[in-house]
Design a protein that fits this description.
Blueprint lengths: L2 H11 L7 H15 L6 H7 L4 H5 L5 H13 L6 H5 L3 H18 L15 H16 L4 H20 L4 H13 L7 H5 L8 H22 L3
């Protein structure tokens, strides 16, 4: 080997060590949790990892691909034990999965808005979807009704999860509006003022019960 090839070989070995993909995604999620999705870039992520953007490009072709992995990482925290869920019956299974998904997004409220821009299609998200659909199909829902049921439940969870950011400020404003309703001749609002605003968690549980009741009625109406 000549002197030039020795130099090239040495420069390559002096490059920064590879960073495990799992660590990259976990660090990216930490940035999103702490600073919001807009703060996440490959440059910022490389600095946080004390690495280089070239290292990150070995795993992700662009920021969008990185975001996909961050979203799917959050779905990894949702338990999807199919046998346990099936033993609950379809309504309790759907309630359990919806609640788990909501609580998981509560832990990562800055991730929920990202789901508006792209559907979760990573392996963890697909595993959750697969179990939920199988529970519905096993319960006798026809395929076209089962997919609609799952989509409706997923959008219901997402709708509430998106509201987690800023909910305290909104509740404070609503509480003030309720207090002033009598002065503003808003009789109906004044009549319920002592009962509102309703905590988001209570709204979620109440709405989920109504949704599952509706799905149960749909199940009995569907054609055999």
């Amino acid at each position: 080997m000549n002197a030039r090839s020795d130099s090239v070989s040495t420069s390559r070995t002096r490059g920064r060590p590879p960073v495990p993909k799992e660590r990259i995604v976990a660090t990216a999620l930490k940035i999103v949790d702490e600073e919001g999705a807009d703060a996440l870039s490959l440059r910022v992520l490389a600095q946080r990892l004390d690495s280089s953007t070239a290292t990150l490009y070995r795993h992700f072709s662009n920021r969008a691909e990185l975001i996909n992995h961050v979203i799917d990482h959050t779905f990894g925290g949702v338990p999807v034990q199919a046998d346990d869920l099936r033993s609950l019956g379809w309504e309790d299974a759907c309630r359990a999965m919806a609640t788990w998904m909501f609580e998981n997004l509560r832990s990562h409220p800055n991730v929920a808005p990202l789901l508006l821009a792209q559907a979760p299609t990573g392996p963890n998200a697909m595993a959750v979807r697969e179990v939920a659909l199988q529970v519905l199909l096993d319960a006798g829902f026809s395929p076209p009704i089962a997919i609609r049921c799952y989509a409706t439940l997923a959008r219901f969870v997402l709708g509430f999860a998106i509201q987690l950011n800023g909910v305290e400020t909104e509740d404070a404003a609503l509480a003030e509006a309720y207090r002033n309703s009598g002065e503003n001749s808003l009789a109906a609002t004044a009549a319920v003022a002592d009962f509102g605003p309703v905590p988001l968690e209570d709204e979620f549980s109440f709405g989920l019960d109504l949704l599952l009741t509706g799905l149960a009625q749909q199940r009995t109406r569907q054609e055999p």
